[in-house]
Amino acid sequence: MLIVMTPLATAPEVDAVIARLVEKGYDVHRSTGAERTVLGAVGHVQESDRRFFEDMPGVFEVVRISEPYKLAGRTFQPRNSIVSVRGVPVGGDEVVVMAGPCTIETPGQVRESARAVAKAGARILRGGAFKPRTSPYSYQGMGVEGWKILREAADEFDLATVSEVMDASQIDDALPYVDLLQVGARNMQNFTFLKELGKTRKPVLLKRGLSATIEEWLLSAEYVMAGGNRDVILCERGIRTFERYTRNTLDISAIPVVKKLSHLPIVADPSHGTGHREQVAPMALAAAAAGADGLLIEVHPDPDRALCDGPQSLLPEQFEKLMDQLRIVVPAVGKRL
Ligand code: PEP
Ligand code: MN
């Protein structure tokens, strides 16, 4: 970090800052200009240190010059990471589409969804067996029986699977059925859970929290990676703003920001990002144009009767049309579908 002193800082104030930096284990590089003194501190910067030095007499500002997420950041790994989800590479030159129902309801519903999304070109089948519902009275999901249905349908149509795991106790049960472990938006900062996911060797789809900054999101990825699991895919799924015509505000600008800061793949979820079927395709196309490595899209054969998120689920024919449009947009940004 850089500590910029005020022009009026006295020599004892500068010395006091240097003494404290040394005490905390930093290497200090001093540069004294005509106007003011700037101190470069090299070492492991704790966020609390930054605030500590900000409050010392004579300090004008403290500027962080390296990111706090060492494993997720680009500094030590400049090249894009490619995460393999049962052989499907996410983060390379292919835009990977993950699609299927919000929640697993019946074998027929999942099979029909799998057939439709595979035919249209999706590579990964989604479907929730444990649902993080805002109300405890809403449908909570089928549990492990649902994962068996998901696996069977995915195998029949040669798809990988993605499904949400809600806490550490569900990880082992998920392993035979789920190829990509989804961490829901409401769990993004469940740090004990993230640490447990760090111990597995399955890829993790880390959704952005409802009100998480990009830095907080990358630090959550860091938790999984620091535990030893480097296979993290980020998912922008909309953040909560004051706007009410959309369920959330899909932060498409997060895509180029994350691409600059991190080597991890990032996918977009325009279904939860908008909450309305007619907004899903335009935002999916926009996310692909912005450089997303993949898309997570809810598709249901009979959305009006869906147990969860019907209003934002595409009909199979709408999904097929979107895939056709993506085949035009995706090559324009140098990728393929
Ligand atoms: C989901 O993907 O079905 C889901 C519940 O997503 P989120 O955690 O983003 O709300
Ligand atoms: Mn949903």
How would you concisely characterize the structure shown here?
This protein is an alpha/beta fold. It has helices at residues 11-23, 47-54, 107-120, 144-156, 171-174, 191-198, 214-226, 254-261, 270-274, 277-289, 316-332; strands spanning 2-5, 27-32, 37-42, 59-63, 83-85, 88-90, 96-100, 124-126, 160-164, 180-183, 204-207, 232-236, 266-268, 294-298.
List the helices and strands and how they pair.
Blueprint: E1 2-5, H1 11-23, E2 27-32, E3 37-42, H2 47-54, E4 59-63, E5 83-85, E6 88-90, E7 96-100, H3 107-120, E8 124-126, H4 144-156, E9 160-164, H5 171-174, E10 180-183, H6 191-198, E11 204-207, H7 214-226, E12 232-236, H8 254-261, E13 266-268, H9 270-274, H10 277-289, E14 294-298, H11 316-332
Parallel strand pairs: 7-8, 7-14, 8-9, 9-10, 10-11, 11-12, 12-13, 13-14
Antiparallel strand pairs: 1-3, 1-4, 2-3, 5-6
Helix pairs in contact: 3-4, 3-11, 6-7, 10-11
Note down, in words, how this protein is organized.
The longest helix has 17 residues, at 316-332. The protein has helices spanning 11-23, 47-54, 107-120, 144-156, 171-174, 191-198, 214-226, 254-261, 270-274, 277-289, 316-332, and strands spanning 2-5, 27-32, 37-42, 59-63, 83-85, 88-90, 96-100, 124-126, 160-164, 180-183, 204-207, 232-236, 266-268, 294-298. The two termini are 42 Å apart. The protein is elongated, with a radius of gyration of 23 Å. It folds into two domains: 2-63, Alpha-Beta Plaits, CATH 3.30.70.1140; 83-332, Alpha-Beta Barrel (TIM Barrel), CATH 3.20.20. The chain is 34% helix and 18% strand. It is an alpha/beta fold and 337 residues long. α5 links the parallel β9 (160-164) and β10. The mean pLDDT is 97. The strands form three sheets. It has an eight-stranded parallel β-barrel with strand order 7-8-9-10-11-12-13-14, surrounded by five helices. Strands 2-3-1-4 form a four-stranded antiparallel beta sheet, covered by helices on one side. It is built from eleven helices and 14 strands. The structure holds phosphoenolpyruvate and manganese (II) ion. Manganese (II) ion is lined by residues 102, 272, 298, 308-309.
